Model the fold of this input.
Amino acid sequence: MTDDPRKLARALESAYPGTASEVDQLPNGGFYLTVRRGDRTWVMDRVRGRFGVDELRPDDGGLDTAYRFTTDEFAVAAAELHRLISEG
Done:
């Protein structure tokens, strides 16, 4: 898999019917990927060189600087995002 969040977003929409995604590219090469399905929302981003993956939950009070999953590798982060969505 290439390190392309837009391709990942399209793959997620194909793999999980009813899924909508949005990619915000940052000037520094980072990105925010937001995936929504029903009343659930997952995020993956690349900021400061690392990838973060998490599900936004009502009891979180919003996403801050802490992710439940982080890695240096796009493919590993993408696989974790797939896993979270498939379990949802």
Observations:
- The longest strand covers residues 40-47.
- The first helix runs from residue 5 to 15.
